[in-house]
Specification:
With 80 residues, the chain is mostly helical. The chain has helices spanning 2-9, 27-35, 44-58, 74-79; strands at residues 15-16, 39-40. It comes from Mobilicoccus pelagius NBRC 104925.
Length: 80
């Protein structure tokens, strides 16, 4: 949580990948989603949307999204 709080202080995107509610290893991401202004990341497209939102908020005219290409998996994202 301290890393997420510091990232938010610095204006960085904080994202969390939710997991099964029955898993102890999912407690941290679920707490971030519940208590912090945190982006839900379930696939590569969610990550791109979070980054684009950040750019719009900062007033950047350059979009990280490539409209001609849809990314459907983390594997595809690594290939870009």
């Amino acid at each position: 949580m301290k890393v997420a709080e510091r990232a938010q202080e610095l204006g960085r995107i904080v994202g969390a990948v939710p997991g099964p509610v029955t898993s102890a290893t999912s407690a941290g991401p679920h707490r971030l989603l519940r208590d912090k202004d945190c982006a839900v990341i379930t696939d590569a497209a969610d990550l791109y949307r979070a980054l684009e939102t950040r750019d719009v908020e900062r007033g950047s005219s350059a979009s990280l999204l490539m409209p001609e290409r849809t990314v459907s998996s983390a594997w595809e994202m690594r290939q870009l």
